[in-house]
Amino acid sequence: MGLGPGIVPPTEEDGVRRTRPETVVWMVAAVLALAACGGGGGTGTASATIETISPTAAADLVAEAPEGLVILDVRTPQEFAGGHLAGAVNLDYQAAGFADDLGTLDRDAPYLLYCRSGNRSAQARELMRDLGFTEVYEIDGGINAWSQAGLVVVVP
Predict the structure, then answer these.
(1) How far, in Å, CA of 88 to CA of 76, rounded?
(2) What fold is seen in the domain 49-148?
(3) Which of 15, 68, 80, 136 could covalently link to 90 via disulfide, CB atoms 3.0 to 4.6 Å apart?
(4) Torsion-angle region of residue 38: left (phi > 0), alpha (psi -120 to 50) or beta?
(5) What value, to the nearest 5°, has the Cα angle with vertex 65 and ends 62 and 67?
(6) Is residue 103 within a helix (H) or strand (E), and if so which, with residue range?
(7) How many CB atoms lie within 10 A of CB 62?
(8) CA distances, 151 to each of 55, 86, 105, 108, 115 (Å)
(9) 87 with 111: CB under 8 angstroms?
(10) Domain limits, the chain
């Protein structure tokens, strides 16, 4: 059979059950059909846009805000009071009920997400992905990078 020297193919007598070629074709077709039906685990996030963008791209997003854009600041209330993006709402990542509060938000609304430097917002972004949010943009470098880019920070 051309398997190489010393290699002997198994036989029916060895207890190996042979699969007919047409059975293999049907099995492959079934697997491909299942994969085409959305093997994404049923989370509904196959078409989600969840990404990190530069501060200038974020400023452009805010300037041409898609309908329902929520600017979400995940810093502490004290940090938020020290300055934030115009129109931002505060949801403290470090608060005990953060994940529960996040879960009450509209998963289909677009979100612009940031923290101080990008660590908390990156974790919040992944949580939002896991919760099935469909459009999340995180500011790379957080409000620090936003400020360094010369963009406006509202100080109450």
Answers:
(1) 13
(2) Oxidized Rhodanese; domain 1 (3.40.250)
(3) 80
(4) left
(5) 150
(6) helix 98-103
(7) 18
(8) 8, 11, 27, 27, 15
(9) no
(10) 49-148
Q: Taking the chain, what is the end-to-end CA distance rounded to the nearest angstrom?
A: 81
Catalytically active residues are 115
In degrees to the nearest 10, what's the CA dihedral of 23, 26, 32, 35? Answer: -90
pLDDT at 47: 82
Supply φ then ψ for residue 81, to 5 degrees.
-65, -25
pTM of the prediction? 0.71
Predicted pLDDT of residue 5: 52
Average pLDDT per block of 10 residues along the chain, 156 residues long: 48 50 45 40 63 98 96 98 97 97 96 98 97 97 98 94
Q: What secondary structure letter does DSSP report for 85?
A: -
Residues in the chain: 156
Decide: helix, strand or coil at residue 138.
strand
CB-hemisphere CA count at 13 Å for 137? 20
Question: What is the rounded distance in angstroms from the CA atom of residue 69 to the CA atom of residue 9?
Answer: 64
Which residues share a beta bridge with 49? 135
Contact 59, 85 (CB under 8 A): no
At residue 109, the pLDDT reads: 97
